[in-house]
Design brief:
By secondary structure, this protein is mostly helical. Helices cover 82% and strands 0% of the residues. The protein has two domains: 1-50; 54-213, Cytochrome c oxidase, subunit III, four-helix bundle (Four Helix Bundle (Hemerythrin (Met), subunit A), Up-down Bundle), CATH 1.20.120.80. α4 packs antiparallel against α5 and α6 (152-182) packs antiparallel against α7 (187-213). The protein is flat and about 65 Å long.
């Protein structure tokens, strides 16, 4: 089932009302929405298999942004400056930044070199770097002196970091499946995995900035 018919009917209604009331901004909005609709219509007509999966993936990313945004806002709302951070910002979390950013770089190289004989090496490096980040997070969890029940701030912070940790584990697992099942056979699956890994990296930058550094 496509969402385009509902969207197109709404666009046509906006265009008709704008022309009837002679609202110039509505006409420009109608033209912009029409171009947007035409773009997705081409995707659904000529690439029906890929468009559904791509749309589902981006809807998933939007939902993830909402979840992480809610948790980070909860952390900021309950931060009165007296609790401190989970760990020193210049120790394990800072090293984690280097691991994830480097893995993002190697994943990008793999994506751009997809299909070349040795592109799998960069994917393997990304997996090892992601696994290293997982080990750092486990070390931090066991070394932390507080827990999720200590106060509201630490509860929200642990939930945010723990949720990101689960996403890193899922990303490492997805890259491992990609490496084992065929690193040069399915470009769309490789693209989705790399996009997801970039999303995980970007989220960590916000987590590091708002939970550890600020």
């Amino acid at each position: 089932m496509s969402w385009l018919p509902v969207y197109n009917s709404w666009v046509v209604m906006v265009g008709i009302v704008s022309l009837f009331l002679w609202k110039l901004w509505g006409v420009f909005f109608f033209l912009g929405a029409l171009i947007f609709s035409a773009y997705f219509l081409v995707w659904e007509v000529f690439f029906p298999h890929l468009s559904r999966y791509a749309m589902a993936f981006w809807l998933f990313i939007v939902s993830e942004v909402a979840i992480f945004g809610s948790l980070l806002l909860t952390v900021l709302w309950n931060d009165d400056g007296g609790e401190g951070a989970l760990s020193d910002s210049l120790e394990l979390p800072f090293l984690g930044c280097f691991l994830l950013l480097t893995s993002s770089l190697t994943a990008t190289v793999y994506h751009h070199c997809f299909g070349l004989p040795y592109s799998w090496v960069f994917l393997l490096i990304s997996i090892f770097l992601g696994f290293g980040f997982v080990c750092l997070q486990l070390w931090e969890f066991f070394d932390c002196e507080c827990d999720v029940l200590y106060c509201t701030y630490f509860g929200a912070a642990f939930c945010t970091v723990g949720l990101h940790f689960s996403h890193v584990v899922a990303g490492v697992a997805a890259m491992t499946v990609l490496l084992v099942s065929g690193w040069d056979t399915n470009h769309f699956y490789a693209s989705v995995v790399v996009w997801y890994w970039h999303f995980v990296d970007y989220v960590w930058l916000w987590v590091y900035l708002l939970i550890y550094y600020v």
